[in-house]
Amino acid sequence: MALRRTELIRILWGDIEFDHDVPDTLLRLGDNGKEVKVNIPAEMRTLIVDWKSRITGQSRATPSDDSPLLRRVWKGGRIDESGITADAVWRITQDAGYDAGLGSVTPDDLRRSRTYHLYQSGVSIKEISQLLGHSSQLVTTAYIEEIEKNM
Questions:
Q1: Residue 112: what pLDDT?
Q2: Are residues 15 and 63 in contact, defined by beta-carbon separation less than 8 angstroms?
Q3: Number of domains in the chain
Q4: Average of per-residue pLDDT across 43-70
Q5: β-bridge pairing 16-17 and 35-39
Q6: CA-closest candidate to residue 59, choices 81, 84, 28
Q7: What is the pLDDT of residue 26?
Q8: Is the pLDDT score of 95 beyond 90?
Q9: Which of 18, 60, 115, 139 is the most buried (most CB within 10 A)?
Q10: 3-state secondary structure of 41
């Protein structure tokens, strides 16, 4: 997955399917307004299930389908019911970059890096375009060319 931070903060609990008969998927809206299903890796699914348990344990109620997946955690450990902002995602990414010794890292850097590594690994433009939620493969090709130009 290579979600934009604005897409990430819009994910609701109802967007995630936990049906055990089909692969777990995340339902989201792409650039072009079409619904796109993206498989959730097993490790991420485990984190989501643990997060849901933590929220449920605190509030004594399962999160509703129309509530945000990503929420603020206050210093005392209380989990807020409202979602986080795109700026919060940016700050979290920046802090993680510095903590990892990488310096300044933005969510866009992670998206570009993921895109370029997929491309270099031989993943087709069509697949990359679908993962990014681009409206066409031409947009993805231009995006990759821009990344290469700025390297």
A1: 92
A2: no
A3: 2
A4: 89
A5: unpaired
A6: 81
A7: 67
A8: yes
A9: 115
A10: coil
What DSSP character marks residue 149? H
Same domain, 10 and 27: yes
In this prediction, residue 36 carries a pLDDT of 67
Q: What are phi and psi of 16, to 5 degrees?
A: -105, 125
| β-strand partners of 68 | 12
Question: Is the per-residue pLDDT at 143 higher than 90?
Answer: yes
CATH number at residue 76: 1.10.443.10
Last residue of a domain, one of 70, 85, 101: 101
Instruction: Indicate whether this model's pTM tops 0.85.
Output: no
pLDDT at 84: 95
CB proximity list for 81: less than 8 A, separation 6 or greater = 59, 67, 71
User: Which residues fall within 8 angstroms of residue 40, CB to CB, at 6 or more apart?
Assistant: 1, 16, 24, 25, 26, 48
